[in-house]
Amino acid sequence: MSSPPDSPVFGTRLPGCAYVVRPSAYAVLRDEDGRIAVVRAARGWFLPGGGIELDEAAERAVEREAREECGLVIQPRRVIGNATEIVHSPAGTAGVDKVSVFFDAVVMGAIPAAELEHELVLLRPAEAVARLSQKSHRWAVVKSAG
User: Fold this and answer.
1) Which of 14, 33, 39, 123 has the largest count of CB atoms under 10 Å?
2) pTM above 0.90, yes or no
3) What is the domain range of residue 48?
């Protein structure tokens, strides 16, 4: 999976660093008060979603990840956009090109979350943008509002 050529790239590739492409899918979910669903995990603040498994459609991946992380049953409605986030290992010797698709989605229901180390938090859009750990996630929230 690669992002369309006009998709933004956040971060910088380092010389001599080996990169692996990791397709991902995330959802921008708003409640009835316009708050954004954000997942707080040990490694930061993220939109609900994650990696796309081999032979899995992006829509199914974001549905699966939202169920596992947050216990949310969601329905993707439209693609907000695609973006790449370049992430490095702490030593800077390995990296990941997180090639992501971002969906506007709605919550259809809730079930018990499987990943208990994730906390679902509802934030006003400006606070979500301020807290999200990755620039591509901040970009998607801002883009979804326009």
Assistant:
1) 39
2) yes
3) 22-145
